[in-house]
Amino acid sequence: MRTQAVWAGRIFKGVWPPIIFGVGFLALWQWFVEVRDIKPFVLPKPSAIFDQLRLQHDTILTAARITGENALVGLALGLVVGVTAALLASRVRALDDMLTPLAAGMAAIPIVALTPIFNTMFASTSSTPRRLVVAIYVFFPIFVNTLRGLRQIDPVHAELMRSYAASPWTTTKVVRLPGALPFFFTGLKIASSGAVIAAIVSEYFGGLQKGLGPAITSAAAASAYPRAWAIVTAAIGLGLVFYIAAVLAERLAMPWQRPQGELS
Amino acid sequence: MVTAAAVALEGVGKRFGEGPAAVQAVTGIDLTVAAGEFASLIGPSGCGKSTLLRIVANLIEPSEGSVLVNGKPASRARLDQDYGIAFQSAGLLEWRTVQGNVELPLGLHGVGKAQRREQALELLDLMGLADFASHRPSQLSGGMQQRVAIARALARRPALLLMDEPFGALDEMTRERMQSELIRICAETGAAVVFVTHSIPEAVFLSQRVVVMSPRPGRITEIIDVPLGARDEDVREAETFFATITDVREALRGRSPVAEEGPA
Shortest CB distance from A157 goes to which of B79, B83, B91? Predict the structure, then answer.
């Protein structure tokens, strides 16, 4: 009972400040636009944006689903490659020397410039270029964080595993991999919302005219500014969905890390 | 067949580094610990007592001298899992339950699941932790975590237990209780113990012999027999107990010629 009350109190404390701030901010925005009579192409009213969200609900959702799928497939691909590369680099010195500079190089790739190239490499009706862009974007934070987690090992655990005459692979499996999980999830949280941004950005450079990016462009081109803003809002929402999914996955994967009676 | 000594060290020395920057951690160590004997290594910081323990555990290779554990070379003894080890930090795997931690050395060496479980629960019972088998390490107090670490060290029923200041981080009350429990467990398992500590009362209370070491370079200056019988709480009040403490303290300070004769 008591703990429940404490929990409720914490949720209350944690959730209300951003809500109060958000509502206050929107009210101020609405008031400012109305009082100063600002034109919609400069800054539409929040109420107009919400109207569009409601009216264009189906179209926006379809666009978000397409972009979301690209982000998800790219994220999964980058995840598998990033974790595999980190595992290899943590075990084989020569691979580490090879992969780490390569990963840094990949982080420096201007994905914006890469998209048109991929679009010509693959059929322009394919979603593959966009998914590849997401995968490349995602690779670096996953690789670097996972590798760091795999490298650091509690000295006591290292001595313990040596006293057990455990092989390096057994040590990786039993100690390093679980110990690397917090680092991996740090990488995943960065990568998750970034994957959505990369997916949207990649939609701006030709190829299929589907997804949130083209929807924003066409709304703006049709002077439907509140609609453009509504789609941007949906894009933010999609990024948040990815981020929250990553946070939930972290909780599920590491139940031992859940702080006792603490919310965050 | 004569039972081999638990530990036999002859002319053991260890240098860290090379050339003029080399540090002589320990030198000229001759020490025999009989099967079932409890011996403490005591000395100020830097006297090499932890290094010596790690040489016995084959976590560090000695620069010179011979190390036999259970009559075998130290490396063979490590591969055969002839000893169990516990450190100052419990070093539990936080993602495993208490029972899972005790099962770790058993699982690494192919003990079947049912037997693993049975043995782990038996050991936890021995350590008074039967009710905590499915808890996470983070839910336990420091003393309880250390008991889990000792249960884990005992899991393979080793003839030799190596302990590196296992109670160093515990409060005085918990510490004394743990000492009494350790005495009881050693009596039940018949294991020999090499116990590193910097607490004089702890060394005297636990040991049959106290090995006094001094630093720069680390060496054995004196080995003091503890003339105490069965250890119970009354021993802590006994005259001989205090006399032996004084004896060890003087040995640690480096005896003045007058104080040469110890108490009998």
Answer: B91
Q: Is the Cα dihedral A82, A88, A89, A95 positive or negative?
A: negative
| Weakest mean pLDDT among A116-120, A178-182, A240-244, B86-90 | A116-120
pLDDT, tens digit, 9 for 90 and up, residues B203-231: 988 998 999 998 888 888 888 888 777 77
Report the helix count and the strand count for chain A, using DSSP H and E: 11, 0
Comparing alpha-carbon positions, the chain B residue that sits nearest to A176 is B93
Q: How many CB atoms lie within 10 A of CB B34?
A: 16
> How many helices and strands in chain B, by DSSP H and E?
8, 10
Contact A256 B89 (CB under 8 A): no
* Residue B28 to residue B214: CA distance in whole angstroms: 12
The 10 Å Cβ neighbour count of residue B201 is 18
**How distant is the Cα of A96 from the closest Cα of chain B, in angstroms?**
26
Size of interface A-B (CB pairs under 8 A): 47
Put simply, whether B59 touches A (Cβ < 8 Å) is yes
Give the Cα separation of B168 and B171 in Å (integer): 8
The C-alpha atoms of residue B62 and residue B70 are separated, in whole angstroms, by: 18
Reading the block at residue A18, the tokens are 């951003």
- Name the residue type at position A37: D
* C-beta atoms surrounding A237 within 10 Å: 14
The count of other CB atoms within 10 Å of the CB of residue A187 is 27
Question: Cβ of A160 under 8 Å from any chain B Cβ?
Answer: yes
Q: Express each pLDDT in B88-147 by its tens digit.
A: 888 899 899 999 999 998 888 888 888 888 888 888 888 888 888 888 998 888 888 988
Would an 8 Å CB–CB cutoff place B130 in contact with chain A? no
On the CB side of B58, CA atoms within 13 Å amount to 23
Q: Is the dihedral of CA A9, A11, A14, A18 positive or negative?
A: negative
